């Protein structure tokens, strides 16, 4: 590896691009299994924040470069022996605006988010995949929450996501025992959408992205918001929220198109408006 390539790999990058109505995000640090530096996390926060306010977008697709999705935050790089000692409270001040903000944005942005996972999805990377609306993984992929194995407690939403998706007993197995999970088991547990063969991963993810990007974007976003709200609401509160969302979605052009397509017995052509 050349000096320039070594420096690029040390810093890492997140490649962000538009593909029509789809925002494509690639974690690009394959030499370190796409572990995330502070710079990369900052780029993710910026890209997702911008996407939340971009009415021309209709879906987000996140993947990793090379053979892995993401091996988590690069704690080694930020805790080098002999490096400057951070002030007390550094993590409490910084992480809510960095790694935790990424998870929050993925979970709350009113656009469908799809993750494609190959190889390792570890720690922050695992939780990023769990926070997405749909994650498609190659059968050889491995999901792992190694926080306790490394001597510190879980973060990036793992203690909220895992119990809700797979139940408390299974969450304990992953978070307290550090059990690694295959993509097939992750799909069986309800942690991800689908496990497919490595050769089928790109096509399966792309079909899903295209389907979501062609959908009624406002209604999908409002449904996503209602699902999140319902996780901490009573039935009555959830149905009240649904009514407000219904009022909004019924005022969209896509709602009118959906009704017209139903009357004409044809597939609707949604415009995301």
Can you characterise this structure?
- By secondary structure, the protein is of the alpha/beta class.
- The protein has 13 helices and 9 strands.
- The strands form 2 sheets. The chain has a 6-stranded mixed β-sheet with strand order 1-2-3-4-6-9, sandwiched between helices. A 3-stranded mixed β-sheet has the order 5-7-8.
- Helix 2 links the parallel strand 2 and strand 3 (59-64).
- The relative contact order is 0.10.
- The mean pLDDT is 91.
- Belongs to the enoyl-CoA hydratase/isomerase family.
- Pfam families: ECH_1 (PF00378).
Main traits of this protein?
273 residues; alpha/beta; Enoyl-CoA hydratase; six-stranded mixed beta sheet; Enoyl-CoA_hydra_C; three-stranded mixed beta sheet; 9 strands
Concise summary:
This protein is of the alpha/beta class and 273 residues long. The protein is 47% helix and 15% strand.
List the helices and strands and how they pair.
Layout: H1 3-11, E1 13-19, E2 22-28, H2 38-52, E3 59-64, H3 75-78, H4 90-94, H5 99-108, E4 113-117, E5 120-122, H6 124-131, E6 134-138, E7 142-144, H7 158-166, H8 168-175, E8 181-182, H9 183-189, E9 194-196, H10 201-213, H11 217-230, H12 235-249, H13 253-263
Parallel strand pairs: 2-3, 3-4, 4-6, 5-7, 6-9
Antiparallel strand pairs: 1-2, 7-8
Helix pairs in contact: 2-5, 5-6, 6-7, 7-8, 11-12
Family: Belongs to the enoyl-CoA hydratase/isomerase family.
InterPro entries: ClpP/crotonase-like_dom_sf, Enoyl-CoA_hydra/iso, Enoyl-CoA_hydra_C
Protein name: Enoyl-CoA hydratase
């Amino acid at each position: 590896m050349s000096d320039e390539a070594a420096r690029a790999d040390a810093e890492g990058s997140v490649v962000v691009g538009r593909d029509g109505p789809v925002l494509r995000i690639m974690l690009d640090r394959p030499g370190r299994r796409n572990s995330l530096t502070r710079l990369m996390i900052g780029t993710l926060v910026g890209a997702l924040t911008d996407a939340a306010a971009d009415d021309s977008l209709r879906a987000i697709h996140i993947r990793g470069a090379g053979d892995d999705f993401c091996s988590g935050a690069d704690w080694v790089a930020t805790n080098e022996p002999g490096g400057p000692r951070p002030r007390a409270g550094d993590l409490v001040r910084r992480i809510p605006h960095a790694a935790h903000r990424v998870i929050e944005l993925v979970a709350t942005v009113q656009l469908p988010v799809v993750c494609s996972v190959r190889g390792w999805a570890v720690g922050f990377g695992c939780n990023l995949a769990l926070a997405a609306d749909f994650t498609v993984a190659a059968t050889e992929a491995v999901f792992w929450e190694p926080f306790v194995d490394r001597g510190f407690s879980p973060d990036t939403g793992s203690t909220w996501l895992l119990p809700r998706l797979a139940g408390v007993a299974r969450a304990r197995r992953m978070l307290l025992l550090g059990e690694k999970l295959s993509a097939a088991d992750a799909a069986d547990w309800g942690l991800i959408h689908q496990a497919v063969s490595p050769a089928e991963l790109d096509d399966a993810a792309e079909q899903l992205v295209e389907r979501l990007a062609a959908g009624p974007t406002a209604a999908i976003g409002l449904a996503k918001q209602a699902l999140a709200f319902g996780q901490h609401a009573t039935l009555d509160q959830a149905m009240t929220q649904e009514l407000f969302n219904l009022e909004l979605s019924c005022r969209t052009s896509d709602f009118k198109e959906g009704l017209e397509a139903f009357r004409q017995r044809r597939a609707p052509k949604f415009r995301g408006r």
